[in-house]
Every structure is written in C-alpha cells, then in structure tokens.
C-alpha cells in the first residue's frame, strides 16, 4: 500500500501527529499495533505549552469537553504537615494559565476519533510493524509481521520509549532504569489545593498526585528500581505503600489511597531515562518518547510529544514531499527538537535528585530551592517557565540553577540544613559544588551538541 505519510504508532503522540499533519491533500496512514487499549499506565498531565499545541490544531475543545479538568500548576509539600509551596502557571508572564489533566485511555480514544474524522487520514489497528523498508539508504516504508508492505514518502515513528524502529535504524540510546511508579487511582476525594498537581516529599521517592475529574485523583508513587513487580510482588508493593508512603499523604487523600489499595493492586510502570543524540534518518523521524524520555516527576513527557508534533507540522507544512525537501525538513526538526528537549532532560534529572534528597548535597539544594521559591514570584515564575516548557534554553536552566545553589550555600553556611558542625558544613558544601559542576557539564555538552548540528 502506498501513502504520503506513514505514522507507526496510534497512541497519544501518533493520533495528535496525524491530526496536526492533516491538510486535506496528503494521505496519512496510521498503524497501531494494539487492537484495543494499552493496558499500561501512561501520562495524563499536560503543561500549558502542550495545551497550546492541542488548541492550535483544533484538538483542545473536544478533548477538554470529553472529561478533562484544568491543571493550575503545582503544590509542593516539603515534609509531612508542612504548608504547600504553590507554583501557579498563571505567574508565568504571557503564558496560558492552565494545563490539562485527563484520564489516559479516555484521551487516546478521543484523539483517535478526532484524527480518523479528518480528511485523508486512515487509522488501522492490530497491525504490528516488523521492519523498515529501504531503497538504498533511504527508508521508504515498513513491513508488517504478516508481510504486508506500506510504502510512504515519509515515515514517522511514534511507538513510545520502547520503539522497535529506533533500534532497527541503528540509533544509539543511553538508557537507565531510575525507579518504578506505582499508580493508584483514589476516588471520592480531594486534594488540599484543588486544581494543582501535588508533590509530597518525605518517602523514599516523591509522590505526584493530580485530579482527573469526578472526584478522582491519580497518585504516582516513586519506588526504588529494585522493587519486585508482577503478581508475586504486588502484595509486598501494596504493603510498602501503606506503611512507608501513606503517612506522607494528607487526609482525606490518604484514606482514599488506602481504600484503593485495599480493593486492587497498583499499576506498575518502570521509570527510565532514555537519551538519544539523533532522531532522524533519510525518510524517517522519531517523534515523542520514541526519541527519548525522562523521569515522569515533572510531567514533561506529553508536552515534549506535543512540541515535537508542532515542530514537525511547521517544518513539513510548506514543502512538497520530495526526498531532498523531506530530509532537509527533518534535519531542521531535529535541531529544534533537541534545543527544547535537552533543557527538559537536565531539569527533570536535577529536580528528581533534589526531591529525593538522598544525599547531604541534594538535601541542601532542596532547602535552597524552597528558599528560592518562597522568596519571590519572579523565582517561582522562572522555575515554572522552565518546567512547563514556556522557556526552553539550557542557559536559562543554568541561570536558575546557580540562583538555587546560592540559596543552598547560604543555608549550609548558616547551619540551617544537614549537620551544622564545621565538618558537616564542609561536606555539604563540597557536595553542592560537585552537583553544580555536574549540571554545568550537562549544559555545556548540550550547548556544544546544538552548535554542531
């Protein structure tokens, strides 16, 4: 079968991508491996930057009307019983004041419906891709497990972080298992600050909780990478959540969490950091988490996917799908994508370390970041601009990180965090310096990589 644009993967990213690329002229075929819904837990929280993309391509209004609930920002609770530090999207100058939270399967089903209704789009489910088809070095389509060949002038893969085509293309990845998420659906409950995504600290890993409508709160509890999975380990995971995590959750959410755990085991998902240095080859591009992913703590994944969608749509809109024009557009997409993605990767890595606070250095930096946020609206707005994708540069991240380090050093010198003895302060300051240099090296590598593209 021949088509203009072939999209491998019909989940959140693939469906949104098809809708954004539809112009009434191009034939777009979407191949989705699953005939039904994906049983795995996946992202549900979209930052305002991502919501802007949905709005731009006419997807926001019908999606929000289905079951969505506004997301106003984040409320971070540093310790059990402490007041929350509010980080509202509305403080970001010139930005949209609300994000969107919506149950994942509902969202994907609606996006598929919206995409399939647009002219020129054909969505086919239950079709598994086995390999790419090449003409010399150029990808010109795919071959399915049944042997059917789909040829296209442009192939896009939106398979997610476990992308098969990424490996078939020889794109090298750096992958690291960070932890596991135990996803719990708490019902008939509320959050301390309705509309805000909450991050509760104090357990081994942070707890992310956000409303998805109708009195339902999704809780994502971060567990060690050594956590046992599967049916055998389900009871042990549930017991650990009850004993070690529930005490750090305020009422009435805690009781709703315990009720949920008593009725059903949590859904488990591995948290990985996957980094790539390229995401295109002649005739093909990786989109969304096919090109890499980070820890879900900052909820950046879906916004990155939608930003990829927008960049690709912008680069492909004015061209004819001739090979030379397609490949030039893909190179531009790659440059723009990584400029956005690298800052998200470094920020997520830094915040996850800080919120876990497993070392003197990260505990000191955590103390500093709360001092920074509590100090001014400008500080909160700058951090949220980076977190939400409204600001995407690595130099901006470094500038904010230096400000946080300054607050961290001040707290250590004053004996406000960690061991206040001279030896303890020196140890903390040495750790802060090491972490700062580590983040500086990431920024330098990212800037150098961008300059060489």
Please tell me about this protein's structure.
With 453 residues, this protein is an alpha/beta fold. The chain has 3 domains: 2-68 and 99-172 and 278-340, FAD/NAD(P)-binding domain (3-Layer(bba) Sandwich), CATH 3.50.50; 175-271; 357-452, no CATH class. It has helices at 12-21, 48-56, 60-67, 104-116, 164-168, 230-245, 253-263, 301-316, 323-356, 360-375, 377-388, 394-413, 422-452, and strands at residues 2-8, 28-32, 45-46, 69-71, 73-77, 85-88, 99-101, 121-125, 129-135, 138-144, 149-157, 173-186, 196-200, 207-213, 216-224, 267-276, 280-281, 284-286. A hairpin with a 6-residue loop joins strand 13 and strand 14 (207-213). It is globular. The two termini are 35 Å apart. 50% of the residues are buried.
Q: Tally the helices.
A: 13
Structural class: alpha/beta
CATH topology type of the largest domain: FAD/NAD(P)-binding domain
Give the proportion of residues in helices: 40-55%
CATH class of the largest domain: Alpha Beta
What is the 3D form? globular
Q: What is the residue-averaged pLDDT? A: 93
CA radius of gyration: 22 Å
Number of strands: 18
- Which CATH architecture of the largest domain? 3-Layer(bba) Sandwich
Number of domains: 3
Beta fraction of the residues?
A: 15-25%
Would you identify the CATH H-level superfamily of the largest domain?
FAD/NAD(P)-binding domain
- Please summarize the sheet with the most strands: 8 strands, mixed
């Amino acid at each position: 079968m021949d088509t203009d644009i072939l999209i491998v993967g019909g989940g959140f990213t693939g469906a949104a991508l098809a809708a954004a690329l539809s112009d009434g002229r191009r034939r777009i075929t979407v191949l989705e491996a699953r005939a039904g819904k994906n049983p795995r837990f996946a992202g549900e929280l979209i930052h305002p930057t991502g919501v802007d993309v949905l709005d731009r391509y006419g997807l926001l209004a019908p999606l929000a009307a289905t079951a969505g609930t506004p997301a106003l920002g984040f409320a971070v609770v540093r310790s059990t019983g402490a007041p929350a530090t509010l980080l509202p999207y509305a403080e970001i100058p010139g930005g949209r004041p609300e994000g969107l939270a919506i149950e994942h399967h509902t969202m994907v089903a609606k996006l598929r419906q919206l995409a399939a209704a647009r002219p020129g789009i054909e969505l086919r489910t239950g079709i598994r891709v086995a390999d790419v088809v090449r003409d010399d070095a150029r990808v010109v389509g795919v071959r399915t497990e049944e042997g059917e060949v789909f040829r296209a002038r442009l192939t896009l893969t939106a398979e997610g972080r476990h992308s098969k085509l990424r490996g078939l293309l020889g794109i090298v990845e750096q992958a690291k298992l960070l932890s596991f998420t135990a996803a719990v659906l708490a019902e008939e409950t509320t959050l301390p600050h309705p509309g805000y995504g909450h991050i509760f600290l104090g357990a081994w890993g942070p707890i992310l909780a956000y409303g998805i409508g109708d009195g339902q709160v999704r809780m994502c509890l971060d567990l060690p990478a050594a956590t046992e999975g599967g049916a055998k380990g389900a009871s042990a995971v549930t017991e650990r959540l009850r004993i070690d995590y529930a005490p750090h959750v305020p009422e009435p959410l805690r009781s709703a969490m315990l009720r949920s755990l008593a009725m059903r085991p949590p859904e488990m998902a591995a948290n990985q950091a996957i980094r790539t240095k390229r995401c295109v080859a002649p005739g093909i591009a990786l989109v969304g988490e096919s090109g890499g992913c980070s820890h879900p703590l900052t909820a950046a994944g879906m916004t990155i996917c939608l930003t990829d969608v927008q960049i690709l749509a912008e680069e492909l809109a004015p061209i004819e799908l001739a090979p030379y024009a397609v490949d030039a557009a893909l190179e531009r997409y790659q440059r723009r994508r990584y400029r956005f993605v690298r800052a998200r990767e470094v920020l997520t890595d830094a915040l996850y370390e800080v919120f876990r606070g497993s070392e003197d250095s990260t505990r000191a930096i955590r103390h500093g970041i709360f001092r920074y946020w509590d100090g001014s609206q400008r500080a909160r707005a700058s951090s949220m601009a980076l977190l939400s994708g409204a600001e995407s540069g690595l130099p901006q991240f470094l500038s904010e990180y230096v400000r946080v380090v300054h607050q961290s050093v001040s707290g250590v010198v004053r004996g406000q965090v960690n061991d206040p003895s001279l030896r303890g302060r020196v140890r903390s300051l040495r750790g802060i310096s090491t972490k700062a240099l580590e983040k500086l090296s990431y920024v330098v590598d990212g800037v150098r990589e961008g300059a060489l593209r």
